[in-house]
Amino acid sequence: MTTHVSPPDADRAQRAARVEARLASQLGERLTRNTALREQHGRGEGLRDLAMPDLVAFPLSTEEVADIVRACAAERLPIIPFGAGTSLEGHVSAPFGGLSLDMTRMDKVLEINAESLDCRVQAGVTRLGLNAELKSLGLFFPLDPGANATLGGMAATRASGTNAVRYGTMREVVLGLTVVTPSGEVIQTGGRARKSSAGYDLTRLYIGSEGTLGVITEVAVRLFGVPEMVSSAVCQFADLQSAVGVVILALQMGLPLARIELADATTMLGFAKSAKLTEMAPLPTLFLEFHGGPKAVAEQIESFRDIADSFGAQGFQFAEREEDRTRLWKARHDAYYSGLALAPGCESLVTDACVPISALADCLKDCAAAAEASRLICPIVGHVGDGNFHMMPLFHPDHPDERARAEALAQEVGRIAQAYGGTCTGEHGIGVHKIDALVREHGPAVAVMQAIKHALDPHGLMNPGKTLPSV
Amino acid sequence: MTTHVSPPDADRAQRAARVEARLASQLGERLTRNTALREQHGRGEGLRDLAMPDLVAFPLSTEEVADIVRACAAERLPIIPFGAGTSLEGHVSAPFGGLSLDMTRMDKVLEINAESLDCRVQAGVTRLGLNAELKSLGLFFPLDPGANATLGGMAATRASGTNAVRYGTMREVVLGLTVVTPSGEVIQTGGRARKSSAGYDLTRLYIGSEGTLGVITEVAVRLFGVPEMVSSAVCQFADLQSAVGVVILALQMGLPLARIELADATTMLGFAKSAKLTEMAPLPTLFLEFHGGPKAVAEQIESFRDIADSFGAQGFQFAEREEDRTRLWKARHDAYYSGLALAPGCESLVTDACVPISALADCLKDCAAAAEASRLICPIVGHVGDGNFHMMPLFHPDHPDERARAEALAQEVGRIAQAYGGTCTGEHGIGVHKIDALVREHGPAVAVMQAIKHALDPHGLMNPGKTLPSV
Is B218 touching A (CB cutoff 8 A)? Predict the structure, then answer.
């Protein structure tokens, strides 16, 4: 674990103290400089490097966020929005100190419009929290990044997950946002209509802006009716190329799969080791889900089996009862933790390459070769229906050489994906780790991003050190 | 027809002449100040007000666009991108003069990646042109705004059309863009991966920016496999409320309809008058399309009929053969022209309200009452699956009172939609006609849009007078 040493800034402590004094009576115990809390807010998941904020605040409302932002702006103190803390890219660390804005107490579902299939929540509502409230209405919010992230955090990183192949990413399902701008003004973006051509798409600009342009305080999203029928399945293949070949063909034929996920042999070993899915062989495995009317689901399964059989699929298992489906998907969801369990004491540096689906097999092959050369354990899971996969090089935090090899491999995976016309990040974001990769990927377009950043946050107070190279 | 009188600007003629001199040898006959061509480029469809540019250029490549933009920037001459000229909102007029950049000769399909279901085209490629090239590959580009618009124009206005309920709008299907910035730099946004979290979403920022932030010169879009089976249908209802009730229920039940379009009784009269669909009664009518495997389509139709029957549907007609489907949809596509045919010599001011689907019935009722009060003929068609409908108040251009009533009604329709939580424009954009409505809809967020505009186009040269109030 590395501890980030902020640039010496004696003045900053005084500015933080003045912000604290200004907000103390309003926030009471919801504003703190307790060290344990600051430490907890100084890092996310993934690389566990610590960079502590000076203060942590727990606002309850958009108005309070605006008050806090104005107080920080007056003292030029950085602001770092913090959701569930499950970012893998260092988004929530505070390399320049400042105030960590913990949104988790803004956890109210504000309205559910069952008739028009939308809802509005505070940014700290988690996807499981929202789905618990929706269940009795026969509705669900499909996005599922594995972690029980907050909707604000998912919007800020343009998250997606296992259902994106059918239901889209945060880019597609968010209808509108409430945002506190860097100067502390409250704006509404988007609206409740499913589509709009009214002016610049600020909703999509804030989605994926990683807290660098303002604080997302409310999120309106589309909802979906729970499908009449849901059927899950797994099947296994002799090699990765066959598994990927099935995915490409299924997508080309337009099968409306709801989920199609890949786990490689190493990942399956991890599942077995964590006592999940012990009955399955350590072979490349596809996890599938089919949604629709009973006849449509039967038709999809039949078409899928035809394709899978032609690539030598084995060990088909189907699960229609909810508890059986849950067991299959729980294993897939916990892949990050069962991956870590393959080498106790290790940390991981999760990659996030995403390529055109036709390039997926070749890209995976090149990345597997790079992984082998690194001599690290590297389980792979993937949202292969989107061409997105995560390789998890495991390294021991006390072995600088292992860490260096893991970091080099992660960079290499990004470069390989870019060479295939893809991106270094499909859903985790840039954070602190991928700024160089962003520049490589988008070239002169990064200057346009910087111009927008400078126009909207001229003093660089919103989550500094993340997403873009500093000007 | 009103002719816009530009503010007197003796200097502008000289600046235009210098731009012309600078580009003459490079562009030859592809740069002109021919009056007929300038007039043709001085207005779109919809309100036929004329505001002529000083010059019209026909670039062939991104590099030429960059050269033209640099020449105009050096002389501070406005640039107005021009696609098929089918905008209904005055986007292509030149109220401050300048150079109209006609993109229609940039009409090459640059690459089709059948395996990964994407392609890249020059901005002047039309949707029908693209689909002609895709046909033999079993692929199609689904977006269909009626007019044979260019993909660049569709991106610039965030267009959608009849298939959006299933396939999304330009916001969802565009993967990336090539853009010439206001200073003449060429940038690439997005990429070929289906999803990305790499930095700010410039793709979505330029989509819907109506030529005010740069010139879109290339567009990469997702493609889709032609469904195994396509079945079209129409059915009629005693009143609008019943037709809309069917749509709401079908969406809530998650029926994956590919198209669900509404035409009101007046529109059906127009279809009959233009010798299209003469056999159908002048009653509110739904036009439908079902895509999928044969069993899935049969299941969808069965479910849909159950819902429709419960609302008293009559006159169901099904069409599976392509020529029969084409006839049905041709009528729907030509609704704008058959609407105009209801009152020969009239023009129309097409509204574009879009509301949450649960509010659609009430919103339509209020708008119909406003239409009746206006004493104008007002056919209504709608992409009702998205909550989007177009009312077309017809007025005679020589009757200022009729035009005033049409304009007041159009404003009122926008206000009604906004009061129901919707937008004044679902897919046509702001242009010159809806700037006040945008301010009403987005309030302080408009200042954020203006800050972005100012940062990226500090001299205000890109399509001035459109989209945003001037600062």
Answer: no
pLDDT at residue A6, rounded to an integer: 53
Under an 8 A CB cutoff, do A452 and B455 touch? yes
- Report ipTM for this prediction: 0.96
The 3 state secondary structure assigned to B343-360 is: CCCCEECCCECECCHHHH
Scan residues 390-449 of A and list those with Cβ closer than 8 Å to B.
417, 421-430, 434, 437-438, 441-446, 448-449
Q: Alpha carbon A289 to chain centroid distance?
A: 21
Supply the CATH number for residue A77's domain.
Answer: 3.30.43.10
Q: Which chain B residues contact residue A452 at CB under 8 A?
A: 200, 205, 452, 455-456
The yes-or-no verdict on residue A100 having pLDDT over 50 is yes
> For A424, which DSSP code?
S
CATH code for the domain of A385: 3.30.70.2740
Residues B366 and B259 in one domain: no
Q: Please identify among residues 357-386 of chain B the ones whose CB lies closer than 8 Å to any CB of chain A.
A: 357-359, 386
Q: Does pLDDT of A2 surpass 50?
A: no
Cα separation of B2 and B433, whole Å?
14
Q: Closest to A248 (Cβ–Cβ): which among B115, B159, B198? A: B115
Least confident of A282-291, A395-404, B46-55, B125-134: B46-55
> A-contacting residues of B 15-74, CB under 8 Å?
none
* Residue A330: partners with Cβ closer than 8 Å, 6 or more residues away: A276
Residue A321, domain extent: 229-339
Same domain? A96 vs A135: no
b/e code A269-295 from CB counts within 10 Å (16+ = b): bbbbebebbeebebbbbbbbbbbbbeb
Q: How far is A236 from chain B (nearest CA, A)?
A: 23
- Mean pLDDT (chain B) is 94
Instruction: Please check whether residue B30 lies inside any domain of the structure.
Output: yes
pLDDT in tens, B130-169: 999 999 999 999 999 989 999 999 999 999 988 999 999 9
Taking CA–CA distances from B165, the nearest residue in chain A reads: A194
What are the tens digits of pLDDT across the range A6-47?
555 779 999 999 999 999 999 999 999 999 999 999 999 877
Pair B156, B194 in one domain: yes
Q: Could you report the per-residue pLDDT of B279-288, keeping only the tens digit for each?
A: 889 999 999 9
Domain contains B286: yes
Tell whether the model's pLDDT for residue B214 goes beyond 70.
Answer: yes
Residues of B in contact with A444 (CB under 8 A): 185-187
CB contacts under 8 A, B 142-161 vs A, are 157-160
Instruction: Report the CATH number that the domain containing residue A253 is assigned in CATH.
Output: 3.30.70.2190
Q: A-chain residues within 8 Å CB-CB of B173?
A: none
Contact B201 A171 (CB under 8 A): yes
Minimal Cα distance from B358: which residue of A? A116
Q: Can you give the pLDDT at residue B6? A: 53
Residues of A in contact with B351 (CB under 8 A): none
Q: Does residue A220 form part of some domain?
A: yes
Residues 6+ apart with CB under 8 A from A391: A350, A351, A353, A367, A371, A378, A379, A380, A409, A410, A413
- The reply to whether B316 falls in a domain is yes
Q: State the Cα–Cα distance between residues A62 and A106, nearest whole angstrom.
A: 9
Write down which residue in B209, B225, B241 finishes a domain.
B225
Amino acid at B321: R
Same-domain pairing of A263 and A313? yes
Tell me the two tokens of residue A367.
């990345």
* pLDDT (mean) for A208-219: 98
- Same domain assignment for residues B233 and B217: no
pLDDT for A49: 84
Say what the pLDDT of residue B2 is: 45
Q: Is a pLDDT exceeding 60 seen at residue A105?
A: yes
Q: For the domain that residue B252 is a member of, what is the CATH number?
A: 3.30.70.3450
Which among B454, B443, B464, B427 is positioned nearest to B147, based on CA atoms?
B427
Q: Give the count of Cβ contacts less than 8 A between chain A and B.
A: 298
Interstrand relation of A347-348 and B174-180 (parallel, antiparallel or unpaired)? unpaired
Structural domains of chain B, count: 4
| B residues 71-100 lying closer than 8 A (beta carbon) to A | none
B435 and B357 in one domain? yes
B159 and B217 fall within a common domain:
yes
Share above pLDDT 90 across residues of chain B, in percent, rounded to a whole number: 85
B87, B117: one domain: no
User: Has residue B449 got a pLDDT over 70?
Assistant: yes
CATH of the domain at A132: 3.30.465.10
Nearest chain A CA: its distance from B437 CA (Å): 9
